[in-house]
Amino acid sequence: MPYEWSSIDVRGSSRLSAGFVTLAAALVVGMQTAGAQPFPTKPIRLVIGSAPGSGNDIASRIVMVKVSEALGQPVVVENRPGANQRIAPEIVARASPDGYTLLQCGTVTTAINPAMYRELKYQPLRDFAPITLFARAPNVLLLPPALPVKSIREFVGYVSANPGKFNYGSSGVGSTLHLSMEMLSVATGIKMTHIPYKGGALALADLLGGHLTAVFQNIPVALPVVKSGKVRALGVTALKRSPHLPELPTFAEAGYPLDIAAWYGACAPVAVPKAVLARLNQAMVDVLRLPETRERFAEMGIEPAPMSVQEFDAFIRVETEKWAKAVKDAGVPAQ
After folding, report:
1. Domain residue ranges in the chain
2. Which of 166, 200, 165, 162 is nearest to 180 (CA)?
């Protein structure tokens, strides 16, 4: 119960009264000073559920280098790949909600996994507080140059004429690379054998080695090999053409309106104070708006997409519903 200052007996020494007031004021100032210590005061850790070198890893590191400069504290990026990106969110969900352990939350960790697994040790909408989106990157369908098809419709016709003969690789069951082909199969009726890998780069390597018929790959990973001519790119899984591969049609232009993108951002344990979330959001949004960040992202084939905390929360909820429907429509069995 707060003190009632009017009830204090001040009939004694005025010197004692003055001393008491001075002491009380000093205590209040001291408490305010201690409570006003700015965040952050020590290094921050960003946990990523994919391996080093993946598109979301590269983009997150670009952002975090500048965020570290803005906040005046080191930001350590920690890769914890495995289990279809379930390990990283499990770690962060158990972390202290103080803003010093963050999750690189994305399409798989946040929107797809809840629809893919009967038992998930974390629930994104319950366990995490959104900070901001970093970027979105659609997928590209890649083929070996020797395959005698040069358009999306030719590819569909070629595979349809040879049911069960061809295979495709992905970064694992439930990844956007896997679900891109499953959603194309739903739209066209084509049948191919899925070969899951422990990473999209491994699947791409086997495509280059002639062991796969096709792969979907995120633009940041696909762009260098497309530009080199080592693979043939047929189209992007977006409703409008990518400014980084403007010559490629969208699947929507071919009559198959796939709207699929890998997206990556940052989240924190749900009980992190709002003031800390706001500080992190402001630092990250400012970094995403820097010309040098935009230039680095453009080199990767992605565009920054900074959002407020509220906008990112709404975005995640829409994506969660979208991917739950996509997994169901594709008939992918729950794991």
Report:
1. 44-136+263-330, 138-236
2. 200
